[in-house]
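User:
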Amino acid sequence: MADNFNKENGNGIKTVSALQKKISRLRVFVYLFLAISVLMTCVSLLWIYSAFIAESPFETYYSTAPTPAKALLYLSPKEGNYKVGDEFSVDILLNTAGSDVVVSAAHLSYNKSKMEALSINLSGSIFEMTAEKEINAKDGKIKITLGKPTPGVKAQNGKVATVNFRAKDKTRPYTDNVYFDFTKGSALYSTVILDDKQGTNILDATRGAKINIE
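Assistant: Predicted structure:
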């Protein structure tokens, strides 16, 4: 009888031990599931905030210039819907982020098979002097370089120029099909020059436009 009791007791201990291991594994699984759920929720909320609530850095108002100084070039509207044959305009806008700038060079590329650049309009530009104003239809390139003497310009949504296009063929692009040629820190493409008597290029980022044609 004692042997049977010991066997039953031993089996009971093994059963309890196995059950505890299963509970521990289940607890780890639950904790892991909760952690992943919380992470996914945070990522989703961050995406919703950045996409629909947070103000775009390009339109942000800067009461004081950041250090180091920066500027932003962008197109408006950032997305347009047109039909073949329509003429439409895209504004080149500048945010100097609280700094004074004396030169802005906007080098654009566009899908020449889907649209035609017709003209460049400088009416209403925040700059006064024109150094470059060129449409290269063969390569689908636009170059606009404008300036204003010291103290230059300080703007949040300052208009640099307007480019007029004609829609040629249908397209629904996944990415911007009018965009800035830009390499941060390079003076070869789009630039914004700070009024510091040293020719400092402070262009930090650019935003193009997505043109849908039906």
